[in-house]
Amino acid sequence: MHHEFKDQAANAYRLEEQVGFLLRRASQRHLAIFAQMMPEITSTQFAALAKLCELGPTSQNALGRATGMDAATIKGVADRLRARDLITATPDPQDRRRHYLIPTEAGLALYARRAETGVAISDETLAPLSAREQATFLELLRKLC
Amino acid sequence: MHHEFKDQAANAYRLEEQVGFLLRRASQRHLAIFAQMMPEITSTQFAALAKLCELGPTSQNALGRATGMDAATIKGVADRLRARDLITATPDPQDRRRHYLIPTEAGLALYARRAETGVAISDETLAPLSAREQATFLELLRKLC
DNA sequence: CAAAATCCGTTTGTACACGAACAAGTCAGA
DNA sequence: TCTGACTTGTTCGTGTACAAACGGATTTTG
Question: Where in this chain does the record put each HTH marR-type domain (chains A, B) (predicted)?
Answer without folding.
Answer: 16-145
